[in-house]
Specification:
Blueprint: E1 9-14, E2 17-22, E3 28-31, H1 46-69, E4 77-86, E5 92-101, H2 107-120, H3 122-127, E6 132-138
Parallel strand pairs: 5-6
Antiparallel strand pairs: 1-2, 2-3, 4-5
Amino acid sequence: MEIVYTAIAHATGGGRDGHVRSEDDRLDFDTRLPKELGGSGEGTNPEQLFAAGYSADFLSAIHSVARRLQVDTTGAEVSASVGVAPDGEGGLVLAVELDVYTPNVPEERRAELVGAADEVCPYSNATRGNIEVTLTLVD
């Protein structure tokens, strides 16, 4: 595999209660546990960052696949919900729901588009078989 881009980020402090910074300084902020996990909830958290990355990448995959399928993805949106749950062994696991809105794609083609995007999205390929991911078509 030939890597064409590498993102580098550094975490310091307490991890979820710490600080993250990207190598190029485009990201530079404190992280905090959400209130639901016993934290202050006053900063961003890794689940929010994962949701942002997954939703953006999945939307890119939709646009990419749409060209091949010849459908109009103008106005398309993806919302990612990343949940955290105990794994029963003292750790935590993630679950993701992607809500996909494609207002200009004919209803009979939406599932085809989303399925094809799921096959090419790097986040989907990385999570497949590792965490529960639910794809939901939103009207």
